Every structure is written in structure tokens, then in C-alpha cells.
Amino acid sequence: MKTGTFTGFDLELHEPGIAWFQFNSPERLNGMTTAIKRDLIEAVTQAQMDNQVRVLVFTGTGRAFCAGDDLRAYHGAELGGEPLVGDIPPGHDNALGTYNGLRTISQALNTAVRNLDKLTVCALNGIAIQTGFSLALSCDFRIAADSARMGSATLRFGLLPDEGGQYLLVQAMGVAKTMEFLMRKKIVDAEEALNLGLVHEVVPAAQLEDHTMAFATELANGPQVSMRLLKRSVYNAAEMTWSQSLDEIAAKTAVTDHHPDAREGVSAFHEKRDATFNAWLDK
User: Can you say whether residue 124 is alpha, beta or left, with left for phi > 0 and alpha for psi between -120 and 50 degrees?
Assistant: First the structure.
């Protein structure tokens, strides 16, 4: 996987296999553009295919994680960094352009994140609105600084949560709470987000990075094959019948029960020691 400074974000790879994405335009509240999204899609795709990467972390710089789309910068903004992919028209100049822009770029980013087999963590360092909020909801885990605030609030502008926000909110909160959240244009602080089930943890802002790195390291040291299959099984279960989910987990168990990580886990249990998983990744 290529690391460095790209359009709108820095990407580093930390041991033991943590890809750290950090948005780097704090003066723009890390507002998204087409160029940033298409580079993120490429970087996420590379991370999925690279065995060195076990966990992906997304965070921001300054007082925002991502305050939504930077519409002023959508057309030809100079954002710095090395582009991962070439120029693509931004779209949104007419109805068809908006449809294509959403399906090909904006929605494709959240789809790429949700489709990852590898676990993802969002460290919400500050404001997360619309695009930033839906990206956070696309991740498997969300850790918020106590200073963070988040919401969709698209109706404040007469717009829709068009990157899948409505679906992601229903999965997190259910229909009734999502209806109130969206229709009342809510932007909530970290504690209320925790109570609503939108984030998993709230930590002091000064501890966010260290806490997230420790959590990501815990995930990265876990049995990667079983964790990736279990992640997919959990998401599948939300849309399956009981019978379908039983068959699905049985098929995955036929893989994990015979994997070297399972033998290591059983041996470690009998020998009363911590298991050392993922030897297959070192080969």
C-alpha cells in the first residue's frame, strides 16, 4: 500500500499493520471534495489488498473530523498532496451528474469502507457533519473525543443524507430514533451520541489518538481470518433470516476451525499462555 501525503489526507502504516488515515485540511474543517473521495477509495482498495494492513483508522486534524462536503472547493481546488488517481469530472452540474457523482464517488467511498474485510475504526476528533458523519457511521467502530459533535442536518439546507446516512442511522438506532434525528436536524455532542448508540466510546480529547492506537493494536493482534469472517457474518445477519444466518456461519466455521490460528488458540489455552496469532501473515 502506498503511504504519504495525498489529496486531503496523510496515510501512514504503523505496526502491527495499522493504516492511519488523517485528514489534513483543518483550515477547511477537512471538507470533502471529489478528488479527496476518489483518492480515499483508491487507498482503501489498496489497503484491502495489502496483507501488511490489518486495521484501518480514520481521523481528522484540528477542530473537525470532517464537516461535510466543501462545495466551494469542488471545482478545481488546489488541495496539495500527491494524487493517487487522475482527474475525474466532479459532476453535480445537472440532475444526471448528481446521480452519477453520488453513485460513482460519494456513495462508493462509504461502500468501499463497509465492504472491507478488515476492521475499521473512526476516531472522531471534532465536528462530523453529513459526509464526515456518514463516513464515520460506515466504520465498524467509532471512538469520539469528548469535544466531538456530529449529525446529518442536511434538512437545514433542504438537502438529503445522500451518501447512505439514512440507512446507516437506521442500522445504528432503528427507524423511530432515526426519523426524529433526521427530521429535527439534530447535531449532538459526544455524550448524547454515546447514549444514542452512534459511538462506542467517549474519551478525553487529549487521549483520543493514544486510546485509538491502543484499540487498533488490540484488533490488529487478534486472529485476522476469524475476525474478518465474523465481521462479514455480523453484517450479513442483519439482513438474513435465522436459517440463512446459521448456514452462513457454518460455512465460515468450516474455514476457521481448520486454520492455523485456531490450532494456536487451542494450544495457548492448554498451555495457559497468550495466543500469538497471524503467523500466516509473516510468511
Answer: beta
Q: CA-CA distance, 136 to 141, in Å (whole number)?
A: 8
One domain, residues 93 and 132: yes
Task: Please report how many Cα atoms fall inside a 13 Å half-sphere around the Cα of residue 248, on the Cβ side.
Answer: 17
Question: What CATH number did the domain enclosing 229 receive?
Answer: 1.10.12.10
- Are 183 and 265 in the same domain? no
Q: Which residues contact 281 (CB under 8 A, 6 or more apart)?
A: 17, 51, 54, 224
Task: Examine the fold and report which residue of 220, 243, 264 is the final residue of a domain before the chain moves on.
Answer: 220
> Residue 241: which domain range?
224-282
Give the DSSP letter of residue 105. I
69: Cα separation from own chain's centroid: 17
User: pLDDT for 153-184, tens place per residue?
Assistant: 899 999 999 999 999 999 999 999 999 999 99
Among the listed residues 10, 55, 48, 58, the one whose alpha carbon sits nearest the alpha carbon of residue 216: 55
pTM: 0.94
Q: Supply angle C-alpha 139, 37, 107, rounded to 5.
A: 60
pLDDT means per 10 residues in the chain (283 residues)?
95 98 96 94 97 98 95 61 80 86 93 98 98 98 98 92 96 97 97 98 98 98 98 96 98 97 96 96 79
My answer on whether 124 and 188 are in the same domain is yes
Whether residue 194 sits in one domain with residue 233: no
